[in-house]
Amino acid sequence: MNRIAKNAFQCSLRALAATLVAGCGAIALLEPPTKSVARFILPEKLTVIVVENYSMRADLAVRADEVASAAEARLEANTKVPLVHWSKVYDLKSNSPTAYSAMTVAQIGKALGAEQVIYVNIGSNSVSGLPGGMVTNGSFTALVKVVDVGTSKTVWPSEHADGFPVEAGLAPDRAQKDVDAAAASSKISQQGGAAVAQLFYTFRTGS
Question: HSE of 7 in the Cβ direction (CA atoms, 13 Å)?
């Protein structure tokens, strides 16, 4: 083998080795999905999702329905828990706003024929951005608890009196150009609803 051919052969070997190393690195990064275990297994009895916000901000009131709808869809797809449609809560609130505001969580559930209530108190649902339409960040926070209608007692969580903390949102490193702030807030509400539902069933992350 002459010098030129030998050098070409050695270069080919080095390139092949580099490709294999890079490939191994890529394979190492492909970690298998991990399992997220349910925080609480809901009893299979008629359940209603009630989403509110104590701050009474109008924008959060609008987002409450989106959170409830998204949570309901996830629970229907991943559990056998029967659900009162989220719109029934809206109807009750709209038809009797004064009476509704005076109801306890258990009384709301009873009025809708439910046996248990998933109660979600929204803390925040906000987006921030830069001039030019780039949404750079967004967050959703809420407290979630399950109330038994018959006893009016919170059956979960036992360690958090106000509810289990949940958060979701748009990460700062995943900025979206030309996204309307209202649309981004709506998307975060849906992510928040999904995060609420995922408290109650086991699922795989990263899949």
Answer: 2
Q: Kind and range of the H or E element at 100? A: helix 97-102
Extract the tokens encoding 59: 């924008």
Strand partners, 203: 36
Q: Record the tokens describing residue 36, joined without a space.
A: 């997220």
For 115-140, how does the pLDDT look when each residue is reduced to its tens digit (9 = 90+)?
A: 999 999 998 877 766 555 566 577 88
Task: Give the global pTM.
Answer: 0.78
C-alpha 189/C-alpha 126 separation (Å) is: 9
Q: Supply the DSSP string of 11-78, one letter for each residue.
A: HHHHHHHHHHHHHHHHHHH-PPPEEE--S----SS-EEEEEE-TT--HHHHHHHHHHHHHHHHHHHHH
Cβ atoms of residues 127 and 172 within 8 Å: no
Cα–Cα separations (whole angstroms), residue 160 to 71, 88, 157, 198: 21, 28, 6, 18
